[in-house]
Write a structure and sequence with these properties.
By secondary structure, this protein is of the alpha/beta class. It folds into 2 domains: 112 residues, Alpha-Beta Plaits (2-Layer Sandwich), CATH 3.30.70; 262 residues, Ribulose bisphosphate carboxylase, large subunit, C-terminal domain (TIM Barrel, Alpha-Beta Barrel), CATH 3.20.20.110. 39% of the residues lie in helices and 16% in strands. The chain has a 5-stranded mixed beta sheet with strand order 2-3-1-4-10. The chain has a 5-stranded parallel beta sheet with strand order 7-6-5-13-12, with helices on one face. It has a 3-stranded parallel beta sheet with strand order 8-9-11. The longest helix has 20 residues. The chain is elongated and about 70 Å long.
Amino acid sequence: MTADQLRFSGQRFSVEYHLQGSAADARRHADLLCIDQTVEAADHVIPAGPIRSELLGRVERFEGLGDGVHAALLTFPIELLDGTMSRLLHMSFGMASLQGGVRLSNLILPDVALSRMAGPRLGTAGLRAQLEVPVRPLVCAVLKPLGLNPDALAELAYEFALGGVDLIKDDQSLGDHPFCPFNERVSRCAEAIAAASKETGRTCLYAPHVFGPWPKLFERATLAKQAEAGAILICPGLTGYDAVAALSGLTALSLPLLLHPDFLGSHYVGRDSGIAPAVLFGLLPRLAGADISIYPAYGLDYPVTQADCRGIAQACRTELGTLSPTFPTAAGRMNASRIEEMMALYGSDVVFILGSEIRRDPTQIRDACRTFLHVIERTSQMNLHI
């Protein structure tokens, strides 16, 4: 097909960038992104016709935000997307990511493009139904630290499950180490959680960390399914977003996916470049198929603000075609003292991630979990009657 035979529907998707510098410099940068994010060629080699008039990006809006920052809304034809996360990432931030002073601040896809994305398999409603927890926030405990053997992790999982938590996930540091082989860890932990669930009468899902190149990653996910783990933890910064989307789309797997932000930090820590937290931790995980997106809460040693967390939650929940909502999280040294604060921000559709703080007294882990859940249930009931 020659250039003059290209056909475009006229539908376009939008990408908003925040650009640093003077108005003139930022505008020139926006115009350059129209080319760099599509054909990435010198202007003199771009032929007249549909390539120049339709395929290139267009600056639809340009405005100053103050302090030398300008917002530029660019649109691109939907024909440049194919339903994969890699193509979406390339088109929205591929070459722009190599330049300084550019931040991907928003991404708006029309329904025809959204319909081709993986999206959450269960989403908030589906996961609540599976866990039989219709209203209150969910609680997920973490198996750590790295260095414990499978028996020790299984015992910890057993205590967490007896404490009544809804989910138990591997720490992202757990791999396939000689002192803690993946297969043995998953089998032991799944068995321990199943035994505890019989005692409590409550469903508790275990999310092993799956990793590695696709054949091995798929093998590990399959083993988790066979062990009746109930869920999967995956780090898209390590495996790629398309691996997440592939797992989400596997009917034979049908497990909820928890996404961890390991290796994604450099995308958001600098406010003048990278990807805005609402996109990185809210929109992208949801498009890829996350049922739960994990990221650090504000008020810790991470450059995440309360406004960032509010934006992430909105991206997890806002209407996106037929895509189900994703659970945002309250993670990072969570204890009962922050429950009311987190629920004031997120409401009830949030997952509390319990790590080291819940284990201050190693002999009272199950009681600490029960106390945490009691505070959540009490706070939820109070909010219902407000």
